[in-house]
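Usage

Read records sequentially. Each one opens with the input sequence:
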Amino acid sequence: MPHSKSTSTSAKILYRPVGLMSGIVSGALAGVLFKQIWKVASPSHSKDTPKALESEFPLREIVLAAALQGALYATVKALVDRGGARAFEKTFGEWPGD
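and closes with the structure output:
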């Protein structure tokens, strides 16, 4: 449902700490999820996630891990940000974005 009213400056300022916390939470949650998914999905079934400068992992595996991690982070961040915005709107009566 699109929001027809523009957001007030005070709502944007009030939302900043919520946005910062949701960013921290979503990053941590995405990191934990990625590590759990990688343990199962990795081609070499390695418990460690490959880093770009680690020579024991093939480039294909490093690129796959980076793509999965990026997609997972973006998805979790969008879900957490949206949930935070909805909670803010319920509490204060204004949508914090736009």
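Summary fields computed downstream for this record:
- The chain is about 70% helix and 0% strand.
- The longest helix spans residues 59-92.
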